[in-house]
Design goal:
The chain is of the alpha/beta class. It contains six helices and six strands. The protein has a six-stranded parallel β-sheet, with helices on both faces. β1, α1 and β2 form a beta-alpha-beta unit. The chain is globular, with a radius of gyration of 16 Å. The termini are far apart. The model has no long low-confidence stretch (mean pLDDT about 90).
C-alpha cells in the first residue's frame, strides 16, 4: 500500500522549461505543505531563502532521487512546455499523484484519473490542486491510477500501438 503524509509532501523535479517564478508563487501560497525542489545544477537558495517549507536538492544520482520520490506524495510539474517527459513518466511509475501545467503533450502521458491539469500562469489553479489532495482517499486513488498508467508506457505497449495504427491506415 502507498503511505502518505498529512499534509501531503510535494516534489518538484526537472529544470527543462520549468516556470520557476510560478513555482515560487505556488510555494508562497502554500506554507503548510512541505516542498522538495530538485534544483539540479542551479542555485535557487536566494529565491527560496524565506520559505522554511522548502528543501532544495542539488543534482543527485538516481538512487537518491528515488528515495526523495519515495518520501513524496505529489509530483508538481510547473512547466512552460513538455520537452523532456522523464520526470512525468518516472513520477507515474513511482505512483505519485500528478499536478501538471496543461501544456504541450502532457495528455499523451497523463489523464484525469492520475493528474490535475492546471492553468499555466495561475498560481491559484495549482494551489487548489495541492489542497485537493489533502483528502487522503482522493490522494490514494490518484496515486494508484498513476502507478497503473505507468504500465501502459512501455516499449512493448508503444510498439503495439504503432502496429495497430499502421494496420488501420492500411485498411
Amino acid at each position: 500500500p502507498i503511505i502518505s503524509q498529512n499534509p501531503p509532501k510535494v516534489i518538484a523535479m526537472g529544470n527543462q522549461v520549468r516556470n520557476i517564478n510560478l513555482l515560487k508563487q505556488i510555494v508562497d501560497k502554500n506554507p503548510k505543505f512541505q516542498f522538495i525542489i530538485c534544483q539540479g545544477v542551479a542555485d535557487m537558495s536566494k529565491l527560496f531563502k524565506n520559505n522554511p517549507n522548502v528543501t532544495l536538492i542539488p543534482f543527485v544520482e538516481e538512487p537518491i532521487l528515488k528515495e526523495l520520490m519515495d518520501k513524496s506524495d505529489i509530483s508538481l510539474n510547473v512547466m512552460e512546455d513538455t520537452i523532456g517527459s522523464n520526470v512525468i513518466v518516472t513520477s507515474l511509475g513511482m505512483g505519485l499523484a500528478m499536478i501538471c501545467s496543461d501544456v504541450g503533450s502532457i495528455k499523451d502521458y497523463c489523464d484525469i484519473s492520475n493528474t490535475i491539469f492546471c492553468e499555466n500562469g495561475n498560481p491559484s489553479s495549482f494551489s487548489e490542486a495541492i489542497r485537493f489532495f489533502e483528502d487522503e482517499k482522493i490522494l490514494q486513488n490518484y496515486r494508484e491510477a498513476a502507478r497503473l498508467a505507468s504500465k501502459r508506457l512501455s516499449i512493448a505497449s508503444f510498439h503495439q500501438l504503432v502496429q495497430n495504427e499502421t494496420k488501420s491506415q492500411d485498411n
